[in-house]
## 1
Amino acid sequence: MQERLHLVWLISKRELRDQLRDWRILAPLLILTMVFPFLMNSFAYGVVQFANQYGGNLIVDRLVPFSILIIGFFPITISLLGALESFVGEKERGTIEPLLSSPLADWQLYLGKLIVGSATPLISSFIAIAIYLVVVSRQQLNMPDAPVFIQLFLLTIAHALLMVSAAIVFSIQSTSVKAANLLASFIIIPVAMLMMGESFLLFWGNNQVLWLAVIAVTIVAGLLVRLGLAHFQREYLLGREIDMLNLRWMGRTFWGYFKGEGHSLFEWYFVSVGGTLRKLAKPLILLVVLAAFSFLGSFWWVDNNLPDYYASKGDPQEYVDLKERVNKEFDFGELGGEINAPTLFLHNAQATLVIAFFGLFSFGVLGIILYILNISLIGVLLALAKIAGISPGALILAGILPHGIFEIPALMLSCAAVMNIGLVLVTPQAGRTVGEVLLEALADWARVVLGLVIPLLAVAAVIESYITPRLLLNVIGQGF
């Protein structure tokens, strides 16, 4: 094993030497490392002066963690140039053939490139952060706690692995450096949007929720590394000379996968959709387990901690006011006239598509997080109903199960299909390109959504609009 890792180090040393000789990478990296911390400090100082005029202490307290997050991000964006050229650059320079003909395993080549591609921006980011902290320590700004420092440290590492591993995947799949560099926006823009969400959590001050972001980004980065290893093919790098966007082939291939072997609607459901459901067996089992833990955990946490929280405040009236507000929210007197089936259907379909969208770009990770949040919300609402004196069991039987037996499976099927896309992408499949694997997985998702999810959501919307309100009125009216 030591000898194999030594070969990885040889590739890393060679890649590091090439990067240190490239002024296009070194010059911007040095400028950002040495200059950007002072620019960020000037920005922070201006914000502090402005916020102090209006008593914005909360903003000031969150400013240093936000600045650290931004300072750690910018050097990584510059270093993407080296990662994007890691394989396709070698191909254009004519040095890829000796490298690929060497007695090195695919994982050794890939890991050697990844180590240098990630280590260089991380070192630059940490130096820039250290300079910023030295400057900030001499000013009247509150430093973050140790857990926040740990979160920012892990997020910086995860961002580097995420962006560099994605850049290497693009480098493997591209046929020219120009094409690889054009694809850089598909890395920077999603990560920038991700950082907007993380910045919101920092200013919100909820460090517990921020741990979910740390875990999610780390998992996605690991899956991207796995994706690159799974689809690294030496023959593919040497054989392709030009990229072509063949929409006709894509449409024909997608339709072939979507239709499957069924020649009628019945055969399509029985053979094609049935075959897809068998593929989704393991993701569905996982989602059922996650749903049970999310629902029971959120219900137990609110039921056991919320009364103690209000009791610790020493004002019993606040707890009474909470019960009154919850009772008011659970007033179903005019529920029937406010809900209609088309609106419910469109809302649920939109939520399902949003979960699928975020899951598609994160190998299902963000989709699972949104799924867990949706299921947890049900547990929170039932716990609040119990605190207000309403029977959770009665609400489940009358307010959730009638339409939930259709709506919840639809949500699970959609999430499982998105998870399946991530799973097949990171699974090695010899002789098949990433595009072919992705088209088949998207066809499986489309089968499930069009064949099962949409009909289930339609039935759930009708029941939730016309049957559930009456059942709730009867149950609440009987004093449950």
Note: The chain has two domains: 2-239, 247-477.
## 2
Amino acid sequence: MGEIQRTYRGSAVRPEEELTRNGPERALVIASLAREGDEQDDRLRELEELLRTAGAEVVETLVQHRDRPMPRTYLGTGKLEELKDLVERLKPDLVAAEGSLSPGQQRALEDRLKTRVVDRTAVILDIFAQHARSAEGKLQVELAQLEYSYARQEGLWQHLERLGGGVGTRGPGESQLESDRRLVRNRMATLRRRLRDVARSRETQRERRIGSPIPRIALAGYTNAGKSSLMNALSGADVSVDDALFETLDPTTRKLTCDGHDVLLSDTVGFIRHLPHQLVKAFSATLEEARDADLILHVADASEPESRRDARAAAVAEVLEEIGAADVPRLLVLNKVDLVAPDDRTALRFRHPDAVQVSAVTREGLDDLSSRLADAARARLTTLDVTIPYADSGLIAAVYADGSEVTQEATEEGVRVHALMPAAAAARIRATLNGARTG
């Protein structure tokens, strides 16, 4: 969990610069939750999966049931003592909080436990750092990490706080802290400039995409729902499909032909409950594929319990709204139906009659999904029904070049052509014919 270590350097207890170990890091999970039940189990299971993806294994979990975490120490006094005993006995490499920790809560826990403490955001940042491949993705991750850790810089020089300010206390501690902060601010400013340059280039490409007559389809869904596997099954792309959260961060777009119609299919970063705002902002390059799409394929895991699937669907809807994609038409794709019993599939069909049930592994349902994508492509096309004089028969080749579902019939006046075409291409054909008639 190297990136967690780098983020952690801005907190109260500094880890060793180099860690040599056999096997994954050992994590002790803590949580302050309002109540027990399926939601608690799902949140703890999700954090455990996040930690596994980041390279750590959970050795123990400690939960306190409160309406809200303690403002200063996250856990109450009794649970904090219990946690301290667990840390001394199990000697974990880190303590991971299920929710978000304020800088003060993180420092208070580290002071008490004398071990590294991270929160859910830090774990997600660590995973993003591992999985970013493109130059832009790496810049976005670094900026998100610096923004996250900036408020935690004070803890790095906590041993010099007595020299922090006031009569008789001024000294190197204040100047060192300010020096570190200035370095971080300068680096963040540099990253923002570089990302603005990349964004300008990407905007040009985006305008070209939007101007294209080919419809844009975006895959979106909760992380690890099988979006990338579905992308590969539909397009033959080679998107990474490891069983890990946030495996896809950089956008991947492929051109498909569905029932004779071309579409552009884009994979996006997996969503997650309470995705940190700075990560939504940082990965706008990937997420805008959903915002600018003509249709969003909301990929959900059909094999999950219904309550969990509903909660994750709500999380996806929340992120789509945050990025401005709430009004984009959506088609629910229930993936992994090969893991669902026949009776449960029937129940899913009744509950989601408009959804498409597929399996990226067995390829079941992919023909049905391709037909639905072809329908989306047809919806963007206009109908061309014209008679082309025999003297202008060269226009027929233009219709075949830009159109689909082309039929033709010989008449006395010429060849009657019927086709589905992009509006601009159809307008050109009509204008040419009108010009020929007036000429």
Note: The domain at 214-378 is CATH 3.40.50.300 (Rossmann fold).
## 3
Amino acid sequence: MKEKVRIGVIGLGGMGQGHIIRIKDIPEAELTAVSDIDPELTRKSSDENRVPGFAGYERLLASTLIDAVLIATPHYFHPEIGIAAMEAGIHCLSEKPIAVSVDAADKFVQAARKNKRVFAVMYQYRTLPEVRLARKIIESGRLGQIRRTCMIEPNYRTQAYYDSAGWRATWKGEGGGVLINQAPHGIDLFLLLGGLPSRVTAREHTRLHRIEVEDEAAALLEYPNRAWGYYYTSTNEVPVGVFMEISGDKGKLVYQNGLLKLYSLKSPIPEFTFSSREMWASPEVIEEELELPQCETGHKEIIRNFCRSILFGEKLIAPGEEGIWTVEFFNALILSGKKNKSVDIPVNRGEYKNLLESLKKISREKKVKKIKRVTDPGHL
């Protein structure tokens, strides 16, 4: 049995360069090749890391130098490259999101199943101790039936960020704005803990930046059990942060900027509502003491887990097939906002594909003075 997974990194922008550093620090992983469409960047990375470089990912996949790829290209290329890798017998770890549209995400997931390859997505926030504990609490049923959800996640980006590359913040190059770029990590946690809604009624705007895609979005959510939810995100607000509530008839989870709180009820709400004889009574609330698990976190842990899944069958922290949840969600919000109507989940694949194609047709060519490839220091 192999002791290391030979990994080729495809896409050598800020994220790809950051992942190369992490791969070198993982005992189960070995960087054996790099690839980017920019020949000069490929040569530079090849020389610095002393591994072969390929200007096209197809040559990398045919090289026999790798067991797996880590895809860190712009979003539209994730399924194309991933499917080609899996058909070549190569495992795949994709940066988020796994696709721009749900029909492309479907094909990505189907390719993994058909070729029996390990498929993971880079949702590193799942590794956080408070998120692991929150997931355990939800799965144990301690909240009872979920009655309401809320997720408010303001982000911030300068115009300089959007001007750093021609593909950023365009329908043709990126396929969306804040919902597809900054928000997927938060959306993933929201859906992981609160579940996938069955209907959304959304609004989206380009409120501040000089871009053609949305920099703000909000939605009213409906769930199969008739629970309600609310979601908001933008790149226009500081301080940034995350506020999430998952409220059930037995208790409530509150997650805010890394702090997790659990409130349990001595009597479930439906039971107390009809058993109490007092006009102004309410169930007694207890704030539970929580002990966070000791665990590894971050991108490094997702890569390590991916490698150990290939080598030893370890359960994936962020399976690629669960990456489709986020795509369903942001596709539903964009479709609802653009069409000014409520949209059901699963999203109508054909309707969203037609919308995206129409938006790409009017997408303007974007020229930048200087391309900047810098890893986000806040997402290490």
Note: The domain at 5-124+301-318 is CATH 3.40.50.720 (Rossmann fold).
## 4
Amino acid sequence: MRETTVADPLLGEVMVARQPIIDAAFEVVAYELLFRDDLGLPPDDDDAGDRATATVLIDGLLALGREVTTDGDDAFVNVPVSLLRSGTLLGLPPEGLVLEVLHDAAPTEAVRHVLREHREAGFRLALDAVLPGDLRLPLIDEVDLVKVDALLTPQEDALDLVRELSRRDVPVVAGRVEDAATFERFGGAGARLFQGFFFTRPRVVRGMRPIGLPAAHLDLLREVARAEVDLRRVEALIRSDLTLTDRFLRMVDALSGWRSVESVHHGLVLMGTRRLHRWVALLMLSAVESDVPSELLTTASTRARYCEELQRERGAAAGLEPFCLGMFSVLGPDGVLPEPVLQQVPVTDAVRAALQGRPGELRDLLEIALAAEQADWPRLAALGRGLGLEARVLARSHHEALRWSVKVRSATVWGATPSPHGCR
């Protein structure tokens, strides 16, 4: 048996994966967070592994901040009963934390006592992966939510459980929802929230159509694709379109820090060509049909920045390729775009090949980003080694990507609220 260790919660040593939890309208309301120290697997002893994972998770959440790890939404955290009994969590701020009670919670008076203690302290509690006939069902009165796993039992039995809980007015999260039919069935049975890889494949959720951009946006894309970008021409194109002006000023405000942005020209000077490239890629994606789930845009910006950071850490010439690779990868399931969509995306032949699923270094960068999203640590570490990237670098780059995604979201690049600067 391996010795159990808990990672020091320093940046670069704790890796976080997050999976969205959405409501029936496909709006993200929370994320479940998964951490591993140094991208390793839990120890062989299940109890010791849960304890180490939970400790690293809480430390990582505090070290990174909820604004980074969940964009300010609620965080669902797996915790074993042993950690609850220790009282360790009672010293933490409970706001925005949902503690998921695992299978080791027997319906004893002692367990009821610790659950009540944490609820009184302000934490919300959820029973994790509940099955029909689950021994934890008597604890329902002590928690706020129940997660029912759609894959761990015959589906009809799981649906009957959801119906029973709904009749008792117990909020249900349907977990591991992998397809549209399962989403419809569990929603019809009374589930209020949903979780699963189905929601990271937006083409299944809604019929993704090829991107359509106004003429001014296409002209801007062509201009920034030139070997020598003419900033005067770029400025004229931005100023000619109210939407472009509004979105440009929002982005440059978010990325310029303490400096005041005085005009479109000033913003271009502050942004520089590299950031301009990124912003135009974001603008391109923001033109996707408006009924696409908002999580798609958050995922896109995180993947884009992660691929870019990884390429930089490798010492390779980054250019715009890694960023565009991650950005446009969300337009197809598992980062493989259908031909009608791929034909509309302005990328290089190398990026196009990676978005077709062809093997190569660029595809490996994207596969690392996908593995991080899915908490597939062995695959992530193996791919990283293949590109000469250490675990610490993989983690540090992912943290940077999450932070950058928060900045992008705060800029509301695709929002409709007018910029405070107006059109300049």
Note: The chain has 18 helices and eight strands.
